[in-house]
């Protein structure tokens, strides 16, 4: 396994995490009955990583987050082109078997709690989704808190979407997707577009979306032993992003928005992750509002397990599902 791949799975503390998991499993068996060694290694390593960087200055947290990403040179199935989208830096990711002139497009909004992460940090995930779907993808670096608190990210997402339409991208061949905070941002983007009578994309894929900044208890506490965060982390992140704004603002917590009239949605969430309750509730509310929703709860998967497709077979299968959804939505 190349060093960057191990870092992408476990962060800087890979060796210590591997030793810890080996001893723990020998003593008490797997943390969850269905977990293999790598499932537990990823969850344990990433939990340790987030615990160690919690409270550090944001530039330092962002740097350590970026250090875990797969380097661009290691992703050989696609080509990359730096660009600007809605006056924000962006990158186009084109599978080598897809024409750069192909009109089928995926707009991807990355995760990172609205506080860290970038298009560059998620190139491996986006490239895998683009290849699975057989479409070009573009990822935008929306502004991050605390320097640019809510609703800066949503404003940038709207501008990026409008820029794609202005460039000639047909909304019927356009899908928006995002993971974690980017998934919540995708949901908020759909609502904002509908409210402004702007043509909606053909569909949206929400991967473990953070859709409720007011949520407390439930799976946030019950699944904390297995997932990579803690409830207190999520609360502090929300407070930092909102900077005094109301967490019940539907633009920040799209689960509280009117969801009528949204396009078809694929929502993937892990059965072992802390956001499980709010994601299931969001899917049910959207379905009750008449939205065509495909809810897929992946048993025993942690938050954003798709990101670890390099080492988790469940991540690779989830990406195949996303690719099939995008192809169907854009009539590939």
Please, how many helices? 11
Helix content: 40-55%
Top CATH class:
Alpha Beta
How many β-strands, per DSSP? Answer: 8
The unreliable regions are 1-6, 8-12
Global geometry:
globular
**Strand order, largest beta sheet:** 1-2-4-3-5-6-7-8
Radius of gyration (Å)? 19 Å
Reading the helices and strands in chain order gives HHHHEEEHEHEHEHHEHEH
N-to-C span = 35 Å
Largest sheet: 8 strands, mixed
Secondary-structure blueprint of this entry?
Elements: H1 3-10, H2 14-28, H3 37-53, H4 58-67, E1 78-85, E2 88-95, E3 105-109, H5 123-133, E4 136-140, H6 152-166, E5 174-179, H7 181-195, E6 203-207, H8 219-222, H9 231-242, E7 265-270, H10 276-288, E8 293-298, H11 313-329
Parallel strand pairs: 3-4, 3-5, 5-6, 6-7, 7-8
Antiparallel strand pairs: 1-2, 2-4
Helix pairs in contact: 2-3, 5-11, 6-7
């Amino acid at each position: 396994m190349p060093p960057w791949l191990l870092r992408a799975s476990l962060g800087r503390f890979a060796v210590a995490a591997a030793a810890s998991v080996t001893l723990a499993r020998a003593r008490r068996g797997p943390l969850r009955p269905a977990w293999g060694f790598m499932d537990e290694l990823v969850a344990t390593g990433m939990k340790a990583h987030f615990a160690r960087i919690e409270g550090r200055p944001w530039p330092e947290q962002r740097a350590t987050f970026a250090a875990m990403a797969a380097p661009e040179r290691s992703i050989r199935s696609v080509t990359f082109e730096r660009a600007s989208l809605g006056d924000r830096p962006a990158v186009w990711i084109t599978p080598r078997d897809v024409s750069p002139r192909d009109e089928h497009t995926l707009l991807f909004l990355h995760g990172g709690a609205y506080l860290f992460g970038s298009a560059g940090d998620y190139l491996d995930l986006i490239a895998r989704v683009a290849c699975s779907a057989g479409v070009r993808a573009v990822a935008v670096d929306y502004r991050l808190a605390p320097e640019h608190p809510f609703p800066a990210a949503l404003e940038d997402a709207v501008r990026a979407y409008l820029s794609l339409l202005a460039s000639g991208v047909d909304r019927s061949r356009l899908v928006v997707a995002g993971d974690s905070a980017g998934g919540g941002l995708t949901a908020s983007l759909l609502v904002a577009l509908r409210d402004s009578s702007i043509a909606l994309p053909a569909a949206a894929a929400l991967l473990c979306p953070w859709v409720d900044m007011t949520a407390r208890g439930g799976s946030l506490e019950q699944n904390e032993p297995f997932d990579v965060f803690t409830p207190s982390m999520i609360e502090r992140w929300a407070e930092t992003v909102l900077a005094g704004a109301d967490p019940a603002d539907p633009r920040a917590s799209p689960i509280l928005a009117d969801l009528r009239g949204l396009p078809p949605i694929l929502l993937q969430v892990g059965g072992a992750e802390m956001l499980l309750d709010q994601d299931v509730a969001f899917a049910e509310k959207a379905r009750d509002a008449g939205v065509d929703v495909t809810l897929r709860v992946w048993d025993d998967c942690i938050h954003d397990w798709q990101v670890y497709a390099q080492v988790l077979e469940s991540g690779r299968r989830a990406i195949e599902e996303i690719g099939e959804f995008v192809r169907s939505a854009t009539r590939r």
